[in-house]
Write a structure and sequence with these properties.
It is built from four helices and no strands. It is rod-shaped.
């Protein structure tokens, strides 16, 4: 395995592609895993960078959707419930008139 302190241009491009694959949520994991499996023996830099990209993409697909749901769906539901209660109250008031 190559232990060079400064990565070559090819190593930088491969690592950049592995990190850029994050824009393709499920395919990005496959692409990055292929980069890691085929290039890990050639360069420590590529091994580290592709493993880092793979870890982030697995986190993105498995954990972040649930965090997003909790942070956005619940306030929206509370907002909708608030509108619904207000709408019912308005209907009651207009029926009384």
């Amino acid at each position: 395995m190559k232990e060079n302190l400064s990565p070559t241009q090819d190593e930088k491009v491969t690592s950049a592609l592995a990190h850029a694959a994050v824009i393709l949520p499920m395919w990005g994991i496959i692409i990055t895993a292929v980069f890691w499996a085929t290039q890990r023996e050639k360069s420590k830099f590529i091994q580290d960078q592709t493993l880092q990209a793979l870890s982030w993409q697995i986190l993105q697909v498995s954990v972040l959707p649930f965090a997003s749901f909790r942070d956005t769906a619940l306030p929206i539901q509370l907002l909708v419930d608030g509108f619904e209660a207000t709408w019912r109250k308005m209907n009651e008031l207009t029926k009384a008139i």
